[in-house]
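> run fold Molybdopterin synthase sulfur carrier subunit
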Amino acid sequence: MLSVKYFGAVAEKTKVQGENIPFSNLSLQELVDELEQKYDLGSLSYSIAVNQKIVQDTNGYMLISNDIVALLPPFAGG
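> ok
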């Protein structure tokens, strides 16, 4: 099982704050592609974290059971 959490505009678009997804040997990119199609997220800008660490290369990242994936709004710095 994977836990997916949504924040900011992504949570507004999905109308949920998170969901559990049955684990089936996915890459992070495959999961993101499925979520973008399911919720029509293509127009949104967001970062992706797995187990509280930002992941830049979603193609090369293989998920494992019990991972927590978060779709986060863009960060503003100061």
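The longest strand covers residues 2-6.
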